[in-house]
TrEMBL record:
Protein keywords: Bacterial flagellum, Cell projection, Cilium, Flagellum
Domain Flagellar basal-body/hook protein C-terminal: 97-136
Family to which this protein belongs: Belongs to the flagella basal body rod proteins family.
Subcellular location(s) of the protein: Bacterial flagellum basal body
PANTHER family reported in the protein's UniProt record: FLAGELLAR BASAL-BODY ROD PROTEIN FLGC (PTHR30435:SF2), FLAGELLAR PROTEIN (PTHR30435)
Protein's UniProt name: Flagellar basal-body rod protein FlgC
Amino acid sequence: MTDALNSIASIASSGMQAQSLRMRVASENIANARSTGNTPGAEPYRRKTIEFASRTDRAAGMTSVAVRSLGVDRTTPFEVEHDPGNPAADANGDVKLPNVNALVEMADLREAGRSYSANLQMMKQARAMISMTIDLLRAG
């Protein structure tokens, strides 16, 4: 029984690590939502992405979550804003802005926070059940 409860804690821990990294990526995207290039016509900050995959531990008989890859969004185009005074402005006075949508990032951040909290609750529940099992074994 305690092996199963330890597995729950291990799975929840992998979920917390994954969601923590997801929150970091979303936070970094939000922080750089207006980061332009440093030279005329230079590319601005590109939105970072994260992809998850399931990871199977055959010895333990459990499946947890792992980060498959960290990447950048190369499909969403940059917005262009006319700002001739910006150091990143090209010859026409246009500046490329990052391909970050703050609303999407905030929604992702909120979802990651909720998933992190759910995994934390699972960890607390497994810990409480292990403690109750130990107490029961001591009393018996």
